[in-house]
Specification:
By secondary structure, this protein is α+β, with helices and mostly antiparallel strands. It has three helices and eight strands.
């Protein structure tokens, strides 16, 4: 059984303020397969895929190979930039945390207020333009998935802006 003080220390360490698109030194658009393997070791499962005609790879860490506090981590490699395609660079990764590892308060503490938030079905989500999408459970308190991407431009708010008052 984990002592409450030790659990809190672990949670604060995991949720320390960082750029939205980064977690445990893995950053989409920058980190490579070598970086991920050095950080987490060999994946539980590796799958080759084709995405939009490009060869990509997906690594899954689950069970005993999942990082501390996670049920599952899925990392997709292969990123196309305007300059070129790099098959070894992290495109996205998704965390499926254990219960109460990333609750609403810790997400807000670690990544700040979201740039956008909304609901999809029964699930509330936070969207950060720096590259993080967090879905919460039906209670709105527990993060169930956290997907990290390179920074994402958000569309402008479609509501008209009122004219300035004179």
């Amino acid at each position: 059984m984990v002592r409450p003080a030790a659990a809190l220390a672990l949670l604060v360490a995991l949720a320390s303020p960082v750029a939205a698109s980064e977690w445990r030194e893995i950053k989409p658009g920058e980190s490579t397969m070598t970086d991920v393997r050095a950080r987490f070791g060999a994946p539980s499962r590796e799958t080759a895929q084709k995405v939009e005609g490009y060869d990509t790879v997906q690594w899954v860490y689950e069970g005993a190979r999942a990082p501390a506090g996670m049920l599952k981590v899925t990392i997709d490699f292969g990123l196309k930039t305007p300059a070129r395609y790099n098959k070894d660079v992290v495109r996205t990764f998704t965390l499926e945390p254990k219960h109460d590892v990333f609750n609403r308060r810790l997400v807000l503490y670690g990544w700040g207020p979201p740039d956008r938030q909304g609901k999809q079905g029964d699930s509330e989500f936070f969207l950060y333009r720096e590259g993080l999408l967090v879905y919460f459970d039906k209670t709105g308190e527990q993060a169930v998935t956290m997907t990290f991407t390179p920074p994402q431009p958000l569309p402008e708010d479609p509501r008209p802006t009122p004219p300035p008052q004179r």
